[in-house]
Amino acid sequence: MIESHDSVWQNCLSTIKENVPDSSFNTWFKPIKPIKYDSNTLTIQVPNRFFYDYIEAHFINILKKTIYQVLGPKGQLSYKIVVDNTQATKAKESFSSKDIKNPFVIPGLKKVKFDSNLIEKYTFENYVEGDCNKLGRSAGISVSQKPGKTAFNPLVIFGDVGLGKTHLAHAIGNAIIKENGDQNVVYLTTETFTSQIVTAIRKGSIEELINFYHMIDTLIIDDIQFLSGREKTQDIFFNIFNQLQQSNKQIILTSDRAPKDLVGVNDRLISRFKWGLTADLKSPDFETRLAIMQEKIGPDAERIPSNVMDYICFNIKKNIRELEGVIISLLAQANLNNRNIDIDLAKEVIQKFVTQDNKGISVENIAKLVAEHFQVPVETLSSKTRKRDIVIARQLSMYLAKNYTEDSLKSIGANFGGKDHSTVIYSINTVRDLIDTDTIFKDLVSELEKKVEMSLIN
Asked: What three-state secondary structure class fits 31?
């Protein structure tokens, strides 16, 4: 009895189903139609060239095994591909159970490219490395050189807001494209991904959406913590994640917390997030913040005095996004209002970005720091002596107290032998005049400011 093409294909499907996940079976094999069986050759029709290309890349060994089991060692599989949904064209190559060397390739068939959504300016070249991000950056470079072929799959990058997660994710994607021009790299936020799912459900096109993601070589999803509570989106992402992983495609995820701390995300997804490498981005130290600031400023770096840079970096301690915002505002204020860039202007700008906490410093603390620097007893700053070094130390203490505390002029004067507010004002103006006219004194003030600011950090 001669078997029909339908019955032969059903036998093939039974074998295939035992060897692939249900999601892959439903997506890639159910849509195939058998159209002919003759002389140990089964001819099947696939919906489009994308299908054809994907099967070539991912299921060749399964098909070889299936044809051998169902049709025997002489069995063959040939294809017809739907063109423009109306015509069918026969593939020039046929698949034999004895020959698995690239049997599906159609001459002239080119891989379709997708819009990556990557921001080109975010690269490794302008991503400043420090102890805070060394692991993530190093892993990212490894991934960009061999996407999907390292142990870092998935690569999960996590850390607080504004620490450079998105920059690093884009840098990896841009480097992959630079090194591997034929790679399909796609970046999107979790919100965008969820919106796609909602739209696909409404239009009944979930299968088409999943097919699209199966053709991606590197998938980058930002802020996966927003998967929380979205069960349908998690289910679909779970299937996409599995298929990409099994196909050695690269997955890069960012989050504001470690996978183990994600709330409202099901355990099977969290388990998969832990399969690769989880890299923690920490708050950068002062030196790294300074390097980042200089990178962000670029050609305008010469316009900003070093003591102003130090002051900004001492006060913006965690959020790199805020640091960039301060720089932009500082330069804009200077340009629009024709002002010099100095500590006073920096202080005005910073107050709009962060609530400064001066509880860690007091007039008494400042007096001790200045006295230690001048190597004089702190009580001499409150005495009536007119020795020049003591007078300078006292005036500097009042100047710093005005800049770093919320105390009134009267309160500041009370800490230095009961001086009145006019004396405090005179002292502050004297220090400002000396800063403008004496470079050595200016350096002295800068050094003392650093000590005060370090005490704020500590």
From this structure: coil
